Automatic annotation (TrEMBL):
InterPro entries: GOLD_dom_sf (IPR036598), IML2/TPR_39 (IPR019412), TPR-like_helical_dom_sf (IPR011990). This is Uncharacterized protein. It comes from Durusdinium trenchii. Transmembrane segments: none annotated. It holds the Pfam family Iml2-TPR_39.
Length: 688
C-alpha cells in the first residue's frame, strides 16, 4: 500500500482472499522445509496448485495465476529433498521443474512478480547446471537471468500494491544472490558472459541487498539469512578476507542465528550453519557438540547425515582427535555405501586411513586403505579429487609392501593390483608422505588453522615443522613450507608467512614436474601475495600474482582453490587480468577458423558464446601424419542456447585442431562471438 493517503489501493475482497491463501501456502511450505518436513511441504504445494487450477482468473482486478510460483518453490524443495535423500537424477528433476515453472509463469499476467520469478528460474537452472558439471552452460544461464533482474530496482523494489511484501522480498533475494555470485566468478567467465548480457555486479551491493531482505522479515528472509551466514562464516575465510572484516561478518551471523532460533527452532539448515559459526569463532568443542545434536535428527536423511559426519571429521582434525576423525570419515563412507553412492568414497576412505595411521590404529588404517583401493575396480568417471586419492592409496600400498618384503617380491605382487589406476603421480604420491598429506588436508583443504585457538595453532605448526625437517628432497620441503606458510596466513602472522612462502618459492628451480603439480608452489606464491597486500605493499602483491600466473602448470591439485583466491586478491590490488577470450567476426557467406597447435600428448578445451542469431561449428583434428578426425559438429548453434563447449585429447601424435565457425548459410548477416581455448599455453592463430 502506498504511503500517500490519497492513493489507497482498492482490492476486490475475493482477489485479496486468494492472494492471502496462496501466500500462506508458500510461507507454510517454506517453514515445513526449513524444519525438515520436506514431503509435507511438497504435498502442501501440490494441493495448492490443484486449487489454483480451478479458478476463473480476474487479471484486470489484480488476480494472479500462482501455479508457476508454486512449481518454482516445489523445484527448490525437490532440490533439497533429492540431495537430502540422495535420489538418483535429482538434479535432472529439478531442471525439469524449473523449466516447467518458467512456462507456467508465462500463463500469469505481466507484472513485477512474474519478472522476478522468471529471473530466479534462470538463476536456479544455472546453479543446478554448475552442480551437474556444466560450468560454462551454468554460468551462462545465471547471467542470462540479468535480462529479467536488471530492472528490478525500479519495478520490484519500489512496487506498490497488495503484493508488495512478497515482490520486494523476492527481488532483494534475487538481486543479492545474483550480484554475490557474479562477484566471485573468475574474470574470464564474467567477461565472456557479460559481453553477451550487459550485467553488472558487486559484492558490497549484494550483501547490502541480502541484509535488507533479512531485516525486512519478508517471505524470503530465511533464505537471505542463510546466505549471509554461509558467506560470513565459510566463504569469507575461503576467499581469504582479513580477520577484522570476518569478525564483523560473524557478529551479523550471530544476530541472524539468534533470530532463526526463535523463528525456526530445531531447523537443520540453521543448526548446521551454527556449527560452522562456532568453528569460525574458534569454539571447536561447541561446533562438534552442535553437530552431535543434529546427527540424531537426520538419521533418515542420508545426505544430511553424510554432511554432518564429514563436517564433524574436519572439526575433529583441527582438535587433533585423530581416531575420532577417522571414525567420522568412515561413518560418512558407510552412509554413501548404504545408498549405493560412490563419489567421494575413495577420498574419504583415504582420509580415514590417514587419521587412523596418525592415531596408531594400524588395523583400522589397513581396513580403510583397502576400502579406498577397492574402488579401483569400479568403472566410473571419478572426480579429480577421487582420482588423486586412488593414486595415493596405491602409493601407500606400495610403501607398505616395500617395508614388508623384498622389492622383487613386492613388484610381483603389485603387477596386477594397480593396472586400472592412472599412473600419473604427484610428488605426494610417488614418495608417499602420509603424515604430511594429513597436515596438508587439515590446513589447505579444510582451512583448519582458522578454527584453532592460538595455542593449538602453535602446536600444529610445531608438528608440521618436525615433519618438514624429515624431508630429504625439494618436493617434500616445498610441501612442508607451503603448509607452514598457509597456517601463518590463516593466523595473520604476516612476517612469518612472508618468509616461509618466500622459502617455498625459492625451491622452484629444484622441483620436479610432479612436485609442481601438487599445487604447493602455487599456494606459496598466493600466500606471498596475501602477505604483501596485508602489509600495505600492493605492487609487491601484484608481482607475486604475476609470478603465480607465469608458473605455466594449470592442472595442479589446488587449481580451483587458487584461482578463486587469486581472483579475490587481484580485485583487491587492482591487478590487470589476462584476457583469455578473443572476439571473432564471421562475415556473411564466409567462415573463420581458429587453428590450435597441439604437441604430442597434449589436450585442448574450448568454448564459445555467440552474440546473436546462429552459426555452424566444427572441430577437426589434423595429425602431422595420418587422416584427419572430426571431433565435433554443431549445425545452426543458436545464441539463445548459451555456450558451446568441447574438449579433445590427449593425442598420441602432434598435430592441430581446427575450430571452424561457418556463416556460409547467411546471405546478409555477419556474426560475432567470443571464443576461449585452454590451456593458455597453447599456440592459437586465426585464419579467414
Amino acid at each position: 500500500m502506498s504511503d500517500d493517503k490519497d492513493a489507497v489501493e482498492i482490492i476486490d475482497p475475493e482477489v485479496q482472499q486468494r492472494w492471502n491463501e496462496d501466500l500462506h501456502a508458500i510461507e507454510e511450505s517454506i517453514k515445513l522445509m526449513l524444519t525438515n518436513h520436506l514431503q509435507e511441504a511438497e504435498d502442501l504445494l501440490a494441493s495448492s496448485t490443484e486449487n489454483v487450477a480451478q479458478r476463473d482468473f480476474r487479471f484486470d482486478a489484480g488476480d494472479h495465476d500462482m501455479r508457476g510460483c508454486f512449481t518454482f518453490v516445489s523445484a527448490l524443495m525437490s532440490l533439497i529433498n533429492g540431495l537430502a535423500s540422495l535420489e538418483n537424477n535429482q538434479l535432472d528433476t529439478v531442471l525439469q521443474r524449473v523449466r516447467l515453472a518458467d512456462e507456467e509463469l508465462q500463463l500469469d499476467n505481466d507484472w513485477a512478480g512474474r519478472t522476478v520469478l522468471r529471473g530466479l528460474c534462470n538463476l536456479v537452472a544455472g546453479v543446478v547446471e554448475i552442480m551437474q558439471g556444466m560450468p560454462s552452460q551454468g554460468v551462462w544461464h545465471v547471467l542470462r537471468s540479468w535480462f529479467w533482474l536488471r530492472n528490478l530496482e525500479c519495478e520490484a523494489l519500489k512496487f506498490e500494491g497488495h503484493e508488495r511484501g512478497c515482490v520486494r522480498s523476492t527481488a532483494l533475494l534475487a538481486l543479492g544472490i545474483f550480484n554475490l555470485f557474479v562477484s566471485m566468478l573468475p574474470p574470464t567467465a564474467v567477461k565472456a558472459a557479460g559481453w553477451a548480457t550487459g550485467f553488472s555486479g558487486g559484492r558490497d551491493v549484494a550483501l547490502s541487498q541480502l541484509r535488507e531482505c533479512w531485516e525486512e522479515g519478508g517471505i524470503q528472509a530465511p533464505f537471505a539469512g542463510m546466505v549471509l551466514i554461509g558467506f560470513g562464516v565459510d566463504v569469507s575465510s575461503f576467499l581469504g578476507e582479513l580477520r577484522a572484516e570476518r569478525d564483523q561478518r560473524h557478529l551479523m551471523a550471530r544476530e541472524i542465528l539468534d533470530w532463526a532460533n526463535r523463528e525456526y527452532p530445531e531447523a537443520f539448515f540453521f543448526a548446521g550453519l551454527e556449527a560452522g559459526y562456532l568453528a569460525a569463532v574458534r569454539d571447536l568443542e561447541g561446533a562438534v557438540a552442535k553437530l552431535d545434536q543434529i546427527k540424531a535428527s537426520v538419521e533418515n536423511l542420508p545426505a544430511f547425515l553424510f554432511l554432518v559426519n564429514v563436517r564433524r571429521a574436519t572439526f575433529l582434525l583441527a582438535l587433533f582427535q585423530w581416531r575420532e576423525a577417522g571414525d567420522a570419515f568412515s561413518d560418512a563412507v558407510k552412509v554413501y555405501q548404504g545408498v549405493g553412492r560412490r563419489a567421494l568414497c575413495p577420498s574419504l576412505s583415504l582420509n580415514s586411513h590417514l587419521c587412523y595411521s596418525r592415531a596408531g590404529c594400524e588395523e583400522r588404517a589397513a581396513e580403510m586403505l583397502e576400502t579406498c583401493r577397492s574402488y579401483n575396480k569400479e568403472k566410473k568417471k571419478w572426480s579429480p579429487l577421487d582420482r588423486a586419492s586412488l593414486r595415493q592409496a596405491e602409493a601407500a600400498y606400495r610403501a607398505q609392501c616395500q617395508a614388508a618384503r623384498a622389492e622383487d617380491a613386492e613388484e610381483g605382487a603389485m603387477e596386477g593390483d594397480a593396472q586400472d589406476v592412472n599412473q600419473e603421480a604427484s610428488a605426494m604420491e610417488s614418495t608417499w608422505r602420509p603424515t604430511m598429506m594429513l597436515y596438508l588436508k587439515i590446513c589447505l583443504v579444510y582451512r583448519g588453522v582458522n578454527f584453532m585457538r592460538p595455542e593449538a595453532a602453535k602446536e600444529f605448526l610445531r608438528m608440521v615443522q618436525e615433519e618438514t625437517d624429515l624431508q630429504k628432497d625439494a618436493d617434500g620441503r616445498c610441501v612442508g613450507l607451503c603448509i607452514q606458510a598457509e597456517a601463518m596466513r590463516q593466523g595473520e602472522h604476516w612476517e612469518e608467512a612472508l618468509k616461509l612462502a618466500d622459502d617455498g618459492c625459492a625451491l622452484q628451480p629444484e622441483l620436479s614436474t610432479a612436485g609442481i603439480k601438487t599445487g604447493c608452489l602455487h599456494f606459496c606464491y598466493l600466500v606471498l601475495a596475501y602477505a604483501h597486500f596485508a602489509q600495505g605493499r600492493p605492487h609487491a602483491a601484484q608481482e607475486a600474482l604475476a609470478k603465480l600466473s607465469s608458473i605455466g602448470v594449470s592442472d595442479h591439485f589446488f587449481q580451483k582453490q587458487v584461482e578463486f583466491k587469486a581472483t579475490h586478491l587481484r580485485r583487491l590490488v587492482g591487478a590487470e587480468f589476462e584476457e583469455c577470450y578473443r572476439e571473432i567476426s564471421v562475415a556473411a557467406r564466409s567462415q573463420t577458423k581458429l587453428v590450435v597447435e597441439l604437441p604430442k600428448g597434449t589436450s585442448a578445451q574450448w568454448d564459445f558464446i555467440l552474440s546473436s542469431y546462429s552459426i555452424d561449428f566444427a572441430a577437426i583434428f589434423i595429425p602431422e601424419s595420418g587422416e584427419e578426425e572430426e571431433l565435433l559438429r554443431v549445425e545452426q548453434h543458436e545464441a539463445e542456447a548459451g555456450p558451446c563447449e568441447g574438449s579433445a585429447g590427449p593425442f598420441a601424435s602432434a598435430g592441430r585442431v581446427e575450430l571452424v565457425f561457418s556463416n556460409s548459410f547467411s546471405i546478409l548477416r555477419g556474426k560475432s562471438l567470443q571464443c576461449r581455448v585452454q590451456p593458455n599455453s597453447l599456440v592459437v592463430h586465426e585464419e579467414k
